[in-house]
Design brief:
By secondary structure, the protein is α/β, with parallel strands linked by helices. The chain has one domain (3-179, 253-443): Alkaline Phosphatase, subunit A, CATH 3.40.720. It has helices at residues 9-17, 51-54, 74-77, 96-105, 121-130, 185-206, 211-229, 231-237, 244-250, 254-268, 297-321, 403-413, and strands spanning 3-5, 27-32, 59-61, 68-70, 84-89, 142-145, 164-167, 272-276, 328-333, 337-338, 343-346, 360-363, 366-367, 371-377, 384-386, 388-389, 396-398, 422-424, 430-432.
């Protein structure tokens, strides 16, 4: 079964209802690969590099002349003329916390921290978009389908701006998002009674100084009830409404169905969808962190390749074929790449993509200096390659793109000028969304 967390429904509706009216017509889907995906084994193969760099996978031609992907990605290779590959992403933090925070929030501190200092882009954009007012849509602006939670969050903005979180495996039999679109009359009546009881409790709150907030609470509770009882909301999350052929094309696994749900949600009017490709499909450790002590890197990449390639390719097809390619921008990325030079160490345990403990196996370590991500939709001209790395995929040699450029590009698609828009910190001081980045020109539709 799935679960919902991170924000009460009244709080979420309160967040949505702040500010003047004006809908946001565009949407972003971010597909996050926690731990960092090896760029040299996927989107930036180097067949002329020494064997201890290039690994065992052969490059294959794509639909874009002169562009090669790894043999692990045949479906995406066949759709490369609908993609933009950025091969020159670069950030400066070698640890997962700091690297993730650079990419997700723009915090350029290279030291790992237990929690974010700055709001991530999902929470910040949710706050800014809320100022445009309610959209006449029962769905939340921001949804996380098994979202990246470890190194992200709203910081001082508060939990009201977190994504509406859906957890669990949407490919599992009987999966459902609880408390969405209830249609049982008795349950609806029970909820209405609870709303009335809450109102009576709130009279005490009014007596101790929260008058304005509590006067608005009835409206937020009504909005929460709308989400709880909305048939449209229930349908948006209901994957059983997709035909079997579509579900098969995405893959009858967690990753495929997460990306299918993401597509359904942006079609239904959600502005921001984030989803993390993690868990059992990654291998023994559940992430893309392919150190030799954790995974045999090449077995791990093979282990997850089909599920990953099919899910992303199906999303590419749907964004294009369903008329979403102007309105919806998709980015597939992680916090960094992996060391182009292969390392070796004894495994710490047997499991999927890992040999028994003590077995020497190959791995790749953290590499923030250069890595790749993939973009499509958003009105951008497809079939492009942005930037380049050197002959061993170690350093950017053309069109370096930073974490702040990454964030500015996402904000721009949402209609947010990240260089000018600010959000107040706890002291009321304005904080810019992006300090030192510009939207990547090739990704501006």
């Amino acid at each position: 079964m799935g679960g919902v967390g991170g924000l009460s429904l009244p709080g979420l509706l309160r967040a949505r209802a702040e500010g003047p009216a004006g809908p946001a017509p565009r949407a972003v889907i971010m597909v996050w690969k926690p731990g960092g995906c090896s760029h040299i084994d996927t989107y930036d193969p180097k067949p002329g590099a020494p064997l201890d760099y290039r690994g065992p996978f052969q490059p294959i031609a794509t639909r874009v002349p002169g562009l090669a992907f790894s043999e692990l990605l045949p479906r995406q290779a066949a759709l490369a003329d609908r993609l933009v590959v950025v091969r020159s992403m670069s950030q400066t933090a070698g640890g997962h916390p700091a690297g993730s925070m650079q990419m997700l929030s723009g915090d350029m501190d290279t030291l790992d921290k237990p929690k974010p200092r700055l709001p991530d882009w999902m929470c910040a954009a949710n706050r800014v978009l809320a100022e445009r007012g309610p959209r006449g849509n029962p769905l939340p602006r921001s949804v996380g389908i098994n979202p990246p939670l470890t190194y992200s969050g709203p910081a001082w903005l508060g939990d009201a701006w977190r994504p509406f979180a859906v957890t669990g495996d949407p490919s599992a039999p009987g999966f459902a998002v609880p408390n969405i679109g209830l249609d049982d009359a008795a349950e609806v009546a029970r909820l209405r009674r609870r709303v009335g009881l809450r109102g009576r409790f709130d009279s005490f709150e009014r007596s101790v100084g929260r008058v304005l907030e509590m006067e608005a609470l009835d409206a937020f509770e009504a909005g929460a009830l709308e989400l709880l009882t909305s048939r449209d909301a229930r349908h948006a999350f209901d994957l059983s409404r997709e035909d079997d052929r579509t579900r098969d094309r995405y893959g009858r696994n967690a990753w495929g169905q997460q990306l299918l749900m993401a597509r359904r949600l942006v079609e239904a009017g959600v502005d921001i969808v984030t989803t993390e490709l993690a868990g059992p499909l990654c291998g023994r450790t559940g992430v893309w962190d392919d150190h030799a002590v954790d995974h045999h890197v090449f077995e791990a990449l093979r282990f997850r390749a089909a599920a990953y390639d099919n899910a992303v390719a199906a999303l590419v097809e749907d964004i294009h074929d369903r008329g979403l390619s102007e309105r919806v921008l998709v980015v597939v990325t992680g916090e960094f790449g992996r060391t182009p030079k292969v390392s070796y160490a004894p495994s710490t345990g047997a499991g999927n993509a890992s040999a028994p403990a003590g077995t020497i196996q190959p791995g790749r370590d953290h590499w923030p200096q250069a890595f790749s991500n993939v973009w499509f939709g958003g009105g951008i001209a497809p079939g492009q390659v942005v930037g380049a790395t050197d002959a061993r995929a170690e350093q950017v040699v053309e069109r370096r793109c930073t974490a702040h450029d990454f964030l500015a590009t996402i904000y721009r698609h949402l209609g947010i000028d990240a260089e000018r828009v600010t959000i107040p910190d706890l002291a009321g001081r304005p904080v810019r969304l992006v300090e030192h980045g510009r939207p990547i020109p090739e990704l501006c539709g």
